[in-house]
Amino acid sequence: xxxxxxxxxxxxxxxxxxxxxxxxxxxxxxxxxxxxxxxxxxxxxxxxxxxxxxxxxxxxxxxxxxxxxxxxxxxxxxxxxxxxxxxxxxxxxxxxxxxxxxxxxxxxxxxxxxxxxxxxxxxxxxxxxxxxxxxxxxxxxxxxxxxxxxxxxxxxxxxxxxxxxxxx
Length: 168
Description:
Elements: H1 12-27, H2 33-48, E1 52-59, E2 62-69, E3 76-78, H3 82-90, E4 94-96, E5 114-122, E6 125-137, H4 145-159, H5 164-167
Antiparallel strand pairs: 1-2, 1-6, 2-3, 4-5, 5-6
């Protein structure tokens, strides 16, 4: 249950492991994707205290804002634009240590200094991006391969059992 969410202490890996265990239990009882995304964003944001934690979904060839935690966000992002649009275009996780050095960065918040974006896939087509998990930090160099490893697992967990035909 949501009220039983426990903030984890310990190493970064231990914090992520605890989040994954708790998210697996939390998401097991919900099949509505938006609800799954909303609680995942809230859980990650609560655990790690990032500036912005949320999802964008592909709609009409744009990334459109989904559930998130943090300051007001860009409502739509074109294919190939900014960190999110580039992650979508390249179908790969992007870690940006300093967003001010990323060509074409879209500054939804002037407080954002580093970012990680993980593409989301329907469980029946790992080649087609259907959205992204986007996380911004107010500090330069906040994300690394450990974050990538665990956040990719979390993205897969959120999308578990979702098929292309159920996302349209």
